[in-house]
Amino acid sequence: MAISQRQELAIGIDIGGTNTVFGIVDHRGDISYRGAISTRKHNNVTDYINELYDALLPAIDEVGGINAIRGIGIGAPNGNYYNGTIEYAPNLPWKGVIPLAQLMTDKFKVSCSLTNDANAAAVGEMMYGVARGMKDFIMITLGTGVGSGIVANGQLIYGHDGFAGELGHTTIIPDGRKHKGTGLHGSLEAYASATGVALTAIEFLERDNHRDSLLRNFAKEEIDSRVVYDCAIQGDKLAQEVYEFTGKVLGLALANFVMFSSPEAIILFGGMTKAGDLILKPTREHMEKNMLPIFQNKIKLLFSELKEADAAILGASALVWEMKTV
Amino acid sequence: MAISQRQELAIGIDIGGTNTVFGIVDHRGDISYRGAISTRKHNNVTDYINELYDALLPAIDEVGGINAIRGIGIGAPNGNYYNGTIEYAPNLPWKGVIPLAQLMTDKFKVSCSLTNDANAAAVGEMMYGVARGMKDFIMITLGTGVGSGIVANGQLIYGHDGFAGELGHTTIIPDGRKHKGTGLHGSLEAYASATGVALTAIEFLERDNHRDSLLRNFAKEEIDSRVVYDCAIQGDKLAQEVYEFTGKVLGLALANFVMFSSPEAIILFGGMTKAGDLILKPTREHMEKNMLPIFQNKIKLLFSELKEADAAILGASALVWEMKTV
Question: Which protein family is named in the record (chains A, B) (predicted)?
Answer without folding.
Answer: Belongs to the ROK (NagC/XylR) family.
